Structure formats: structure tokens, C-alpha cells
Amino acid sequence: MVKVSENMNENNIIKILKGSAISIIITLIGLLIYSIILSYTSVAETTMPVTIIIISAISILIGSTLSTSNIKKNGIINGMLVGLIYITVIYLLSSIVTGNFLLNITSIIMIITSVLTGALGGIIGVNKK
Asked: Measured between alpha carbons, how far apart are the two ends of the chain, in Å?
């Protein structure tokens, strides 16, 4: 019985990591499209913070929904983990690139949005039929 439980936990961890990776890939695609739009249209750069939050939220929602769709319980927790892993990776990568490890209001909003959106995606994923 313990062996089955361990396999299920390992399987859930793999699904959570895959969901986080899917979220990051979707974000990269979304940001690429947004950067092309910024370059070739008259869209103002002041739209950047809100657009980045929206792209991230949609990405996490998709990733957490997909990762929890085969997990039949703890959708909120598993979805939150997807969001938390996502935002940790994004924060570390962006901080390394910019050389700036500060937390500002936008960072705090991103963290909260990521965790809450992950939880929502987790709820959707486990209840999807």
C-alpha cells in the first residue's frame, strides 16, 4: 500500500512540474506575440505590466488545469503548486537577467495572481469531466 502511495505522489509531482513547464512555454509564446505587436503597431509600452500579468495568468490557468485534470483530488493545492513553481522560475530568471532581485508591487501582484490562478486552474482540472 505504501508503494502505491509513493508512485502516486511521484506521478503527481511529475504532473505538477509538467504543468509549470507548459505554463512557462505558453508565457514565452504569448510574450513573443506581444513583443511583435509592440514592435509593429502603435500599442503603447505602458500596457506592458498589465499584459504580462494577463499572459501569465492565462498560462498558469492552462498549465494548472492540464496538470490536475488526471489528479482526482487536492486540485487547489496542486494548482497552487503549479503557480508557485511557475512564479519562482520566472522571478529567478528575470532577476538573473536584470541583475535585480527586488520585490516591488508588480512582483507581489504577480505572486498573488500566480498562486490564485493556479488554484482556480486546479479546481477546474479536477472537476473537468
From this structure: 28
